[in-house]
Structures are given as C-alpha cells and as structure tokens.
Amino acid sequence: MKKDKGEAFGMTHFVNPDDQQSSGNADSKSVSEMVKDLTGGVGVDYCFECTGVPDLINQALEATKVGKGKAMVVGAELDHFVQISFLNLLMGRTLKGTIFGGLKSKTHLPLLLHKSKTKEIHLDELQTHEIKLEDVPKAVEILKQPNCVKILIKI
C-alpha cells in the first residue's frame, strides 16, 4: 500500500528490507547497501527517512553520495537523541531535519488548499483510514499498521 501511494506521488524506487529477509538470503544487506545497489554503489543525492528510528537515520545518511548527499529526517520517534556516524558528516554528507516538511502555515496552507481543490495535487489519495475524535487514542496503533499512510480524524 505505501509503495503504491509513494509511486502515485512520484517515488522512483522503494526499498523494503523485509523483502530480502523473506527470500531467505543469508547475506542480508543493510538498507543503505540496498540503496547503493540501486545506484551502482554511488548512493543517492537525497534520502528521506520518515520513521525517526535512530538506526535508520544513520542508514539514510550512509545511503547518500559522498561529498554532496543529503539525508532528510521527516519522522520522529520517542527517542530525542540519535548517535550519528561522524565520519559520514566529515565525508561531506548532510543531515537535516524538518517538522511538517518545512510547511509555513500562513503562506503554504492556502496554496496547498488551492492545489488540492483544483486537483493539481491529490492529497485525498494519501488517506487510508478515518476515525472519530473519540477514537484518537487508537490512532497510534493504526499508524503502526503497514497499510496506513494518513488518518483523517472526524470532529
């Protein structure tokens, strides 16, 4: 489900380490190695890490090109600290973080609303679940499901 949603919004490649493990491959590779395999060992210009899991943040940074790769951390986990492989930063890679994708509510929300209304972007396609306000405590568990992308909370 998440792969299909990503492709609909322009994603070109999707790496799922579970696919490799289920194939019974004894030499399982890290996520960064799998990404580098897709690029002939070079790495990517940009890597978006959306879970906030500390090990995956390091993997995202490692998956970028030496000298100019940028890893963007979009998701957040409960851990407030992440140990980073300092060598990756010394080699010219960049690690950046963002909240709400850098959205500026006063200028970007009206534009986003307009583009959604005119079907220039299809935000409604990201919605996979709908819950009532009183069911909000269940939302965290729903977000952990592999088929969940976004939840609409009805007030």
List keywords for this structure.
single chain; 155 residues; two-stranded parallel ribbon; 5 strands
Summarize the structure in words:
With 155 residues, the chain is an alpha/beta fold. It has helices spanning 2-8, 17-22, 31-38, 54-62, 86-90, 105-117, 136-143, and strands at 46-49, 70-73, 94-97, 127-132, 150-154. The protein has a three-stranded parallel sheet with strand order 1-2-3, covered by helices on one side. The chain starts with a helix and ends with a strand.
Determine the strand fraction and express it as a percent band: 5-15%
| Helix percent band | 25-40%
Helices and strands, in order, run as HHHEHEHEHEHE
Q: Determine Rg (CA atoms, Å).
A: 18 Å
> Based on helices, strands and strand pairing, what is the structural class?
alpha/beta
What is the number of beta strands? 5
Shape estimate: globular
**Number of contiguous helices:** 7
Distance between the termini: 26 Å
The pLDDT mean sits at 86
Q: Identify low-pLDDT runs.
A: none
What about the largest sheet?
Answer: 3 strands, parallel
Spatial strand sequence of the major β-sheet: 1-2-3
